[in-house]
């Protein structure tokens, strides 16, 4: 009987953890801006990426290592903003699971208005990805255009962590 209960408990845990990894919110850029403004007293790392972007995929393991290192710090938060199309949401969910992405992932469902929201996040952003923007107390403190090394990522975090 004890073994049956243990097996049922493990199955429940597996189901719950699986469900948590397969949820991705689709948001418009105004909602993302609002989220950034709500993260007061934190260093917020916002990485724009896509599953079809080779440099994006290459840097994600570094981001996950750093996210794991700082995830217990209440002054730190990482959000991965997928620029995949909404119709590819299932592919994004599979990617999250296969790559074991631990940071929060959202899908920015606003491709048609890229010329509107890109300059709102950074006037020097040409639209290429990956891009990482660091916010401290909801104010932009660093913009990184292109792939980021683990060392540069950590250096930027340490420099700006409250």
Automatic annotation (TrEMBL):
Pfam family, one: AhpC-TSA
Residue span(s) of domain Thioredoxin: 13-162
UniProtKB keywords: Redox-active center, Signal
InterPro entries to which the protein is assigned, alphabetical: AhpC/TSA (IPR000866), Thioredoxin-like_sf (IPR036249), Thioredoxin_CS (IPR017937), Thioredoxin_domain (IPR013766), Thioredoxin_ResA/DsbE_sf (IPR050553)
Organism domain of life: Bacteria
Signal peptide from the UniProt entry: 1-19
Record's protein name: Thioredoxin-like
UniProt source species: Chryseobacterium wanjuense
Organismal lineage: Bacteria, Pseudomonadati, Bacteroidota, Flavobacteriia, Flavobacteriales
């Amino acid at each position: 009987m004890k073994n049956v209960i243990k097996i049922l408990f493990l199955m429940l845990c597996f189901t719950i953890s699986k469900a948590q990894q397969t949820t991705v919110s689709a948001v418009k850029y105004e909602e993302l801006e609002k989220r950034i403004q709500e993260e007061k007293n934190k260093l917020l790392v916002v990485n724009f990426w896509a599953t079809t972007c080779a440099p994006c995929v290459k840097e994600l393991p570094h981001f996950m290592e750093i996210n794991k290192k700082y995830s217990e710090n209440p002054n730190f938060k990482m959000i991965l903003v997928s620029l995949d199309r909404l119709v590819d949401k299932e592919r994004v969910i599979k990617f999250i699971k296969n790559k074991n992405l631990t940071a929060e992932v959202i899908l920015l469902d606003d491709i048609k208005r890229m010329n509107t929201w890109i300059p709102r996040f950074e006037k020097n952003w040409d639209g290429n990805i990956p891009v990482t923007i660091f916010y401290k107390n909801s104010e932009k403190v660093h913009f990184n255009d292109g792939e980021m090394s683990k060392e540069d990522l950590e250096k930027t975090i340490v420099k700006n962590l409250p």
